[in-house]
Structures are given as C-alpha cells and as structure tokens.
Design a protein that fits this description.
- The chain has one domain.
- The protein is elongated and about 70 Å long.
- The chain contains four helices and no strands.
- The protein is mostly helical.
- Pfam families: Transmemb_17.
Length: about 140
C-alpha cells in the first residue's frame, strides 16, 4: 500500500516551489497584458474585467498560501483537521486556476501550460490528501 502521508508531503513540498514560480509568472503576465495587450483588444474602455482578473489572482495567492500551510502543518503533525481544511480549500483554488485558464480576458499559450500543470498538481494532491485523511481515521492494527 502507498504511504499517503509521505506522498502528500512530497507533493506539498513540490507545490510550494511551483506555486512561487506560478504566482510570479502569472502576476508578471497579467501586468504585461494590462499594459500592452489590452489596448489591442479594446478592453481598456471596460476595466472591470481586468480588475476581476487581478482579484481572482490575489484570491488565488491567499487561498493557495493558506492551503499549503495547513496541508504541510497537518501532514507533519499527523492531524486530520488541518488537512481536511486544506482539502476544502483545494476546491476554490482549483476554480481560480480554471478561471485563469478559461475565462480570463486574454489567455496566452504559456498560461495554458502553467495553469494545466497547476491543476494537475492540485488534483493529485487532492487524491493523496483524501487518502491521508482516510488512513488517519482507520484503527491501527498490530499484526
């Protein structure tokens, strides 16, 4: 059987580095789009979509940071409550990444790659987090 705690901790460790890279690149790309590309598409008359993109990105940064912190803390001390909150925060985090992938004002090809990798990593983390929580509730066997 797979050690869900170890796999979940490794995935959280990898995601903590990837999230820093993802956040930096996505913020830089959004700033670039707001300065250069938006003029080409004529969205500068209606800045609410651009403000919405910044809001979703800021929300993603906060939710993902809290999710990673709770997941790492819960995995290290082997408590199920922080990990369950981390699992619950995975859903709005995935919805934010889907927004950046599909419904953003302008989506660049490189963003498809970044957001797809982030979604794949979050889905695998979600599966291992659920497995970890399930194993926390099982009674220990001493065979």
């Amino acid at each position: 059987m797979v050690n869900a705690s170890l796999a979940y901790e490794i995935l959280l460790y990898i995601n903590s580095f990837y999230f820093g890279l993802f956040a930096t690149c996505e913020l830089g790309t959004l700033i670039l789009k707001s300065v250069l590309i938006i003029e080409k598409y004529g969205v500068d008359n209606d800045p609410t979509k651009l403000i919405q993109d910044y809001g979703v990105l800021l929300g993603l940064f906060v939710i993902e940071a809290i999710r990673l912190t709770l997941g790492r803390r819960g995995s290290l001390i082997e408590r199920d409550v922080p990990v369950m909150f981390s699992v619950l925060l995975t859903i709005p985090s995935m919805m934010s990444v889907l927004y950046l992938l599909i419904w953003q004002v302008v989506v660049l090809r490189i963003e498809y790659i970044w957001c797809s990798l982030m979604l794949c990593l979050q889905m695998v983390e979600f599966v291992y987090a659920v497995m970890f929580v399930v194993t926390m509730f099982k009674e220990p066997t001493y065979d």
